[in-house]
Amino acid sequence: MQTPIPPFGTPHAFQHRLGRRVKTLLVLLPTLALSLLGAYWLRFDGHLQLDQLQQWWAALPLVLVVKTAFFVWGRLGRSWHAFFSMHDAVRLARVICLTTLAIAAYNTLMPAEARLPRGVIAIDACLTALLLGGSLTLRRRIREHRERRRFGDSKNRQAVVIAGNAIASEVFLRSLRTGNHSKYYPVGLVTDRKRLLHREVAGVPVLGLVDQAAEVAQTTHAKTVLLVSGELPGSQVRRIVERCDEADIKVQVVPDVNRIVDGHVDFQPRNVAIEDLLGRESVSLDDTQVADWVRGKTVLVTGSCGSIGSELSRQLLRLEPARLLLMDRSETGQFFLERELEAAVQQGQIEIIVADATDYARMEALFAQHRPQLVFHAAAYKHVPLMEKHPGEAVKNIVGATRNLADLAREYDVETFVMVSTDKAVNPTSVMGCCKRIAELYSQSLNPIEDEQGCRFVTVRFGNVLGSAGSVIPVFRNQIAAGGPLTITHPDMTRFFMTIPEASQLVIQAGCVGAGGEIFVLDMGEPVRIMDLARDMVRLSGLQLGIDIELKISGLRPGEKLYEELYAEDETRRPTPYPKILVADSITMSRLEITRHVSRLLQLAEADGLTVRKHLQQVVPSYHPELLAAPQPTRLRAA
């Protein structure tokens, strides 16, 4: 059993470090002395005279002091372990070169009779590198050999094939070795790099590419493939799962290896989730620019309990704002958010605010008290069919709240106002989508014109996010758990999907780079057929659609579109320096005109639904509430 390392800063920790350094010196000093003696022996062809031995003995203290000083300066003691790597080897070579130059320079200042032969200095450098580098490399090889023998003990362990990105797979394999009770026995690795074929990674042979996971598992008689998550695109995960299903091979997913790097080594592989099949390749954003933009500022997030609002809050907190104001009208949601972010709340970095954005007086008091510099407006109703029944509430919640916050942002000198919009605002067929489009127009109209100074108003538009409350994926999961039926409104319906963290990250980036007045559109990738989504979720549950569980086609609901769009016909798309962020250049409305329309709409919010819809259509001519002909409800059953 390993002796635990004492906590940093305690007397025991100091003794531990001191003892480790003494042990290092007890190995280092004799090695350096032997290296210098060996250099003399080689320089004089193995025939050392008494005067040469005396010269070695006289020079030894100086050489040991200089080399030890440089080794301490280069922190080589940190490389003195069984995990000696190429990075450590380069650092060792650099320090040896500097040490040799220092000794050679000092040697020229010495009297001629006391100088070390130049050949001795050169040979000593080579021997030092060979002895130190060789011994550390040998130590690593011995450790790896022991691990390989332990890995090779497959008794009572499950044979698995590891599939994934090469770097992530190596981290995972090394984490397996640290666990004395790992139930997995890796028989092979399939990776994304051809040049690694027929080599070894962490002692495990690379037997193929990622798409060959099923074939390699069959060849090695492994019954399980472990996917290292976080790096593989969803399309590739789908192919692996389909091929493994055909070969009756189980597929499981290893949690994000970053948690392993952070010290969370008690991982538990899970079954493949639908999010793994819909995942996309990650993109690197300008974290430095975003951090500089947020750091030290007071930031307000509305709708902080929602899927996007809560993730925005988490990501913004990591960017070190001076104060993060999290506002939502759901006291229950705010209670749980406060529990989650308890440490930051106690430090005064976060303030949880229960308030309604439609209450202008309450919002004005909030702005006057806290003076936010950045505002992320994510609060809004989102369930289309419910808003069709209550159009006046949609107007108040979406249009009214946006007007309140945008007006106050302009009045209280907010630097940037970021409004979170939706693809339902494009050619809307629903009250909710039309209200979002009006909110876009109002926000755009307040952006400074020509020589005006003031708040930058930025809008970010995107589609569905995976796993948000009430969205199709949680609904399908509940229906599958209940034994069905699975309900789909139309067999040809498609939707765009994006993960909540990615959408939130892109929202922050767009807010950072926006000059003001733009509608940023996030690249959502390819649309997904909801029918295919249902089939995948049923299959991942170990069931078959139409046999184990029924599928019901219920018909389009009020306000629902067959497919979503990210751009209107009168909008032109323009690229930005960021791969997944585009700009939609659209026809705007004058500040006076949109203000008049919004005021009238809010006056009509208490009127009947037909009156509200008529005025919505006057503001947004592309709003067409007429539904497509919906299919009659049907069920798919087993024959």
Automatic annotation (TrEMBL):
Name the enzyme group at the top EC level.
lyase
InterPro entries assigned to the protein according to its UniProt record, in alphabetical order: KR_dom, NAD(P)-bd_dom_sf, Polysac_CapD-like, Polysaccharide_Synthase-Rel
List the CDD domains: UDP_invert_4-6DH_SDR_e
Q: Where is the Ketoreductase domain?
A: 297-452
Which EC numbers characterise this protein's activity in its record?
4.2.1.135
**Keywords, sorted A to Z:** Lyase, Membrane, Transmembrane, Transmembrane helix
Instruction: Family membership, please give it.
Output: Belongs to the polysaccharide synthase family.
Protein's name according to its UniProt entry: UDP-N-acetyl-alpha-D-glucosamine C6 dehydratase
Species this chain originates from = Roseimaritima ulvae
Organism placement in taxonomy: Bacteria, Pseudomonadati, Planctomycetota, Planctomycetia, Pirellulales
